[in-house]
Write a structure and sequence with these properties.
Length: 209
């Protein structure tokens, strides 16, 4: 939508102040967008590292579990896994990344960290599978936090990009065009007034003669 204005000096002064504010805001928004992109790339790299580690541990755990099922009886596996695992809790909070509220998840194990069953009657492969699954839990919690942060930062980057484009390609050009039009109109009025003044002076001079 075009800017509405009156061709007056007061209006031109007001538009110039708006232009200064818009230009400063454009620079700040660009700086924020660039820094948000930099932070986003850092989180994306961490997300990739965590996902690769999770997939590696999951693959190892499942491989060990399959071997354990092959070397142990079904009843022995079910009996070992029926024992409750060590309890843990997750603290949920929030943080801020460049004014973007992001989740903060903290995994806090409350148990001793050992196997939830006795090692007699179980294979080493089952022990390895359970240990791998235990290692997975804090990584999965961190992965969930990082992925959510990536999504929130991506949304913020898109919002900031739209605002930067609106200032750069819409508002600032419209303000500059309005200021230019007012300047031309005022110059035209000034030339017209000068011409009328000169004609009046000539008429008065001719009348006196």
């Amino acid at each position: 939508m075009a800017i509405s204005y009156k061709p007056t000096r007061m209006e031109m002064s007001r538009l110039k102040k708006r232009l200064v504010t818009a230009t400063r805001g454009h620079k700040l928004m660009k700086d924020k967008r660039d820094e948000t992109v930099r932070r986003f790339i850092t989180y994306v790299r961490r997300n990739r590292e965590l996902r690769e580690r999770v997939e590696e541990l999951m693959s190892d755990a499942m491989r060990s579990f399959v071997i354990a099922k092959a070397t142990m009886t079904r009843a022995a596996v079910e009996e070992a896994l029926a024992v409750p695992a060590s309890p843990a809790r997750i603290e949920v909070g929030s943080g801020s990344v460049l004014s973007v509220e992001v989740p903060k998840l903290t995994y806090i194990p409350t148990g001793a960290g050992s196997l939830p069953y006795g090692v007699l009657g179980t294979s080493s492969e089952l022990d390895a599978a359970v240990e791998r699954f235990s290692e997975l839990m804090p990584l999965l919690i961190e992965l969930a936090e990082v992925e959510k942060t990536c999504n929130l930062l991506a949304d913020e980057i898109e919002k900031t990009r739209r605002r930067v484009n609106a200032l750069e390609y819409v508002m600032i050009p419209q303000l500059e065009e309005a200021i230019h039009s007012i300047t031309m109109k005022l110059d035209e009025n000034e030339r017209g007034n000068l011409t009328r003044l000169m004609k009046t002076k000539e008429m008065l001079k001719a009348k006196e003669e």
